[in-house]
Design goal:
The complex is a heterodimer. By secondary structure, chain A is mainly alpha-helical. Chain A has 11 helices and 2 strands. In chain A, a hairpin with a 2-residue loop joins β1 and β2. The longest helix of chain A has about 30 residues. Chain B has 2 domains: about 230 residues, Rossmann fold; about 45 residues, no CATH class. Chain B is built from 10 helices and 11 strands. Classes of the chains: A mainly alpha, B alpha/beta. Chains A and B meet through α8 and α10 of A and α2, α3 and α4 of B.
């Protein structure tokens, strides 16, 4: 049951988006998100949608996977739209009970909905085409300058990738402990929230103990294999920009310039 | 001088009760002096708590002796400057396969050791390929370790150590958590390392079947070396092994019991094939003297 949870939502195919350097994808996604907040008219969103559409086409990931990410933010999206719709002052269009829908409100709500959808789909595209490992690698390299400020970039990246490696193992273990407890009469499924939360205590204690034991073992195994931090370490799969990565950077920058220029035109 | 040499090694730890008061001092390793030759296949045998794992951890400076000295390829393990060289010389494989795989892909895990040593990217790939081939896991190089069986995971761990090009590999009960098939796989891989690659192997185990191919066996009990010799010599001392709470392989025991009943068989029979051959000799009356 617990094993069915998939972490990260990587979609395995072979495409130019998959092969791209994770730094390009991280930077590109960031710039894309930033661009969305500059637009003042709908032309900007159209350009953004076209750009994203092309990227999705290139990634060869079926569109339904992108939409999946939308489900999670549906509630947030609805609340944002409704609040904008009813609470923006301006020229009224119609009134239901005490709530007035204004022309400005409708405009704002539509803009917000499109912006949020593009934002979520854009970031899903990144996680769908990049393995978690690649992503931590990319982050490590991008954040490297922060080392001047004594930020332990390598250590954080190492911790992230170890956490990712151990999540399925710990999930499996939780499943095992849960079954052992159920076999001895534990009840995880009935009662109110407080009762259920209390039932989790005998599950969490052994899980934590085993996690600490694993951590201890792993640390010893890492030391036995000469791990001594990021200094003097080489990379088996170093990140090196290829030609397609430079082309991608140019495309992203061109998109940024065009979309912001067009998106900020005013037609009055 | 051998690749690993210990002289009068003692390792003590302090046992405490729940309030942290000292209950007593336990000697996990007690006055052990051994000398291991380069290229040998060594087995260290002992029941739980005999100190065999503690001794193993001295061999790549994870633990330091309370008294006495351990030399690895001439380097004293107490010398902090040499720690990383020592760990490069003796690799270590642990019991739990899940708790020693770091990478999320098999090949990345094997590359972890060389990465730490600062080996160049191109050479890391060569080493990874060669080590994975040596343990027969090359076809699985792109797999996630979570999807492998226990025996396969342990072989990946061995490849991970092998990629560091050690002179010696210490395996601390590598088969304790595996099923019989997994155990066979791992033992075959270990023998391959020793015979094909010429790596010195130190196998810590409590399974008797695994030591029959060893060049030399040390039996440990209460931190001391209780017996020492070739597998044949060790297995011919059935009573002594029993008193150390160790089980003799079934076929050896059978031969021993038959011998006691007056059937003439040589001492220390280790495999079924050997037993059948010897028994046939006896039955056809071709054996004249008992060795």
């Amino acid at each position: 049951m617990l094993r069915d949870i998939t972490l990260g939502q990587y979609y395995q195919t072979d495409s130019i988006m998959h092969k791209m350097d994770p730094r390009v994808k991280l930077g590109g996604t960031l710039l894309f998100i930033i661009s969305l907040f500059f637009f003042k008219n709908f032309l900007g969103y159209i350009i953004a949608a076209l750009f994203l559409g092309t990227a999705i086409k290139l990634s060869r990931v079926p569109f339904k996977f992108m939409v999946r990410g939308m489900k999670a933010i549906m509630v947030l999206l609805m609340i944002t739209v409704l609040f904008n719709l009813f609470l923006t002052p301006g020229t009224p269009i119609f009134t239901v009970w005490k709530l007035t829908v204004t022309f400005e409100g409708a405009r704002m709500a539509a803009g917000m909905a499109v912006r949020l959808s593009l934002l979520v789909i854009g970031s899903s595209l990144m996680t769908l085409t990049t393995t978690p490992n690649n992503l931590t690698d990319g982050m490590e390299k991008m954040l490297r300058p922060l080392r001047i400020f004594k930020v332990p970039v390598h250590e954080v990246a190492m911790m992230m990738s170890i956490a990712l490696r151990f999540i399925p193992i710990l999930l499996e273990e939780t499943d095992k402990i849960m079954k052992a407890q159920i076999a001895r009469g534990a009840d995880f499924e009935s009662g109110n929230i407080i009762r259920r939360a209390k039932a989790l205590v005998p599950l969490l204690v052994p899980l934590f103990i085993s996690a600490f034991r694993r951590a201890n073992d792993l640390a010893m195994a890492m030391e036995a294999r000469c791990y001594r931090g990021g200094e003097g370490r080489t990379k088996m799969k170093p990140l090196i920009y290829a030609r397609r990565d430079y082309i991608a950077y140019i495309c992203i920058l061109m998109y940024l310039a065009v979309s912001i220029f067009v998106g900020r035109l005013s037609f009055s | 001088m051998g690749i690993i040499r210990t002289k009068d090694v003692v390792f003590e730890y302090i046992r405490r009760d729940e309030e942290g008061n000292v209950e007593g001092i336990v000697k996990a390793v007690d006055n052990v002096s051994i000398n291991i030759k380069q290229g040998d296949f060594i087995a260290v045998l002992g029941h739980n708590g005999s100190g065999k794992s503690t001794l193993a951890k001295h061999m790549n400076a994870i633990l330091n002796p309370t008294e006495g000295t351990v030399w690895v390829d001439g380097m004293d393990t107490k010398d902090e400057k040499e720690v990383w060289n020592i760990r490069q010389t003796t690799g270590m494989v642990f019991q739990n396969p899940d708790n020693q795989i770091i990478g999320q892909v098999v090949e990345e895990d094997v590359g972890f050791g060389p990465e730490n040593m600062g080996v160049l990217t191109k050479e890391i790939w060569e080493r990874v390929e060669e080590s994975l081939r040596a343990v027969g896991m090359y076809e699985f190089r792109k797999h996630s370790p979570n999807k492998l069986s226990g025996g396969q995971k342990q072989r990946v761990s061995i490849a991970g150590v092998l990629a560091m090009h050690p002179k010696c590999i210490v395996l601390d009960e590598p088969t304790a958590m595996l099923d019989p098939n997994g155990r066979k796989e791992v033992i075959r891989a270990i023998r391959g390392l020793n015979q094909v690659e010429g790596v010195t192997v130190i196998l810590i185990t409590h399974y008797m079947e695994e030591i029959i191919h060893a060049d030399k066996v040390f039996v440990m009990d209460q931190g001391k070396i209780a017996m020492e010799g070739t597998p044949k010599e060790i297995f011919s001392r059935v009573e002594e092994l029993k008193s150390l709470r160790l089980d003799v392989p079934q076929v050896t025991l059978l031969a021993y019991e038959l011998q006691k009943k007056g059937i003439s068989l040589p001492n220390g029979i280790l495999t079924i094939e050997e037993f059948v051959e010897q028994l046939r000799l006896t039955m056809t009356g071709r054996r004249t003297t008992v060795e």
